[in-house]
Specification:
The chain has 174 residues and is an alpha/beta fold. It is 25% helix and 22% strand. Strand 4, helix 2 and strand 5 form a beta-alpha-beta unit. Belongs to the thioredoxin family.
Length: 174
């Protein structure tokens, strides 16, 4: 028998991680090294090469929201979105930019409300996108509807400084 299996299809080559793994690959903005960033972990992700903080972006649903969002050590920006929502498609990239700028300070967690009816009910989502900021599981800010990228950035900055003291103060509380 001389059947060759050469025709076996390559599945995308350098595609992203296969579905089902709750980790993303992220390129370090500082040194370029590719890192795997898990959806849930203690502390916050850092580059394995240069230790720079990495942006932390994850997806969560009814089953794993507690582990991924509420138990996170960083404040969490929750993006409650839907596939059929046009404005969500504009907001999501802006939020990813925020997560990159605030690497090490915030975690972005995306929730598809159609796959997560429990969370949609719990957060009383009336419209999408609905954005929340959670600090150790407690909601500290909420915004409904799309907004320009600058406005989103400003809202996140203000919400973080409101829950963690003035952003520009270098001093720590004893
Ligand atoms: Zn690096």
């Amino acid at each position: 028998m001389s059947t060759s299996q050469e025709g076996r299809a390559h599945s995308g080559g350098r595609g992203p991680d296969g579905a089902g793994t709750s980790a993303r690959t992220v390129s370090c903005a500082h040194c370029g090294r590719t890192n795997r960033v898990p959806a849930a972990a203690q502390g916050s992700p850092r580059c394995g090469n240069c230790r720079a903080p990495l942006p932390w972006i994850a997806e969560a649903g009814d089953a794993d929201f507690g582990e991924i969002a509420e138990q996170a050590s960083l404040p969490v920006l929750v993006d409650l979105w839907a596939t059929w929502c046009g404005p969500c498609r504009m907001v999501s990239p802006a939020l990813e930019q925020v997560a990159e700028r605030l690497a090490g300070r915030i975690k972005l967690v995306k929730v598809d409300i159609d796959k997560s009816p429990g969370l949609a009910r719990r957060f009383e989502v009336q419209a999408v996108p609905t954005l929340l900021i959670l600090d150790q599981g407690r909601q500290v800010a909420r915004q409904t509807g799309a907004a320009p990228a600058n406005a989103l950035r400003q809202w996140v900055d203000e919400s973080l400084s409101a829950s963690h003291g003035p952003a520009h103060s270098a001093s720590r509380r004893p």
